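Step 1: inspect the first sequence and its tokens.
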Amino acid sequence: MSGFRPGLLPTLLVLAMLPVLVWLGFWQLERGEQKRDLLARQEARQQAAPLSPEQIESSAQPAFSRVHLQGRFDAEHSFLLDSRTRDGQVGVELLQPFHDELSDRWVMVNRGWIPWPDRRVPPAFDTPAQPLKLAAWIYVPPGKPFIFSHRTAEGWPRLINHVDIEAMWQQAGREGVIHELRLEPGPSAYRADWAITSMRPSQHLGYAVQWFAMAAALLALFIYFGVHQAREKHSDNDESNPCRP
């Protein structure tokens, strides 16, 4: 093609980069669709009738289901999930065993985020001693967390770097439901503004548009460079052949 001479190196670069940029765009669209589905399921289960603790273990897909509880917290066995941030502040999330009197089951309730600005001083929290009625929802992590160390601290409250419900029940010397329950905002909760996803579907769409725009820009530059190179080559040939009409 005499009117298009991009050269070998630009062609190889475009062949390597263009499919990646397009794939990243479609990947972001797929992630956005997954987030929309996740939010829709969360909304539907939040509107459904709440489960009881004994129904949690028999549920095939318990994530986001609401749970009503009635009972007492175990103040002697508190877990502090380290390195949790809110608005740029470092803190912990407080998880405590809760005995549901109606079902006679133990559940692990996350009461929310507590600031911990000075690590020389233990984070301050209290545990209600009276019987409580609580509303919570089931949190199921999307995958296994990346864990730097499996070592756990001694003593109570116990500082942990990830949530392993089965291990936590063993440390507390109890048997309980194997899912984390996150407390809804209320008098017994600390900061319970739980984020369902780190990114909204609209953000994924925005990133997809950026990747597709970069792919289009790369292709446009490739075409422009190829045409420009062909014209320069043609001009050089004309200058080197003065007898050419």
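Step 2: inspect the second sequence and its tokens, then contrast the two.
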Amino acid sequence: MADGRDRVLQDAASRGVDVRIVERPAAGSLHEAAALLGIQPGDIVKTLVVKRHSGDYLFALVPGGRKISWAKLRSLVGANKLSLPDADLALEATGYERGTITPFGSTTAWPVFADSSIVGRTVAMGAGAHGYSAFVDADALIKGFDATVADITEPE
């Protein structure tokens, strides 16, 4: 299987989305990570793998300083039960380890749900490998995945 970063770049190119992958040092907190990358904490977007009761998954794009609003997401996707799978299931569902997960290059193209607060911003997200971040225009990301954009988060 291709290196995670290669999978990210290949999938992004196939979707017409420009992605810039940068090496980054380990950080102990969201604020430290943002400072190291020279961005605001809200510009770091976590890609969370969410398991539906039916057994399939979706990606939720959640900006730093916010968390999934389970009630909002359940209502949006029409599901009574959603959960975060354990690390092994997330790896199986995406081909990526936690901390590296991105919809780009996922082994399965799960639906993408993006929090509306990322619209119009350049964001940093998982790059398919530890120690790297992928910078991408959120609007291009949303278009490339035909993502559903909605208010799916609340402050942490």
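Step 3: confirm your contrast with the notes below.
The mean pLDDT is 95. The helical segments are 4-14, 30-37, 70-77, 87-94, 138-145.
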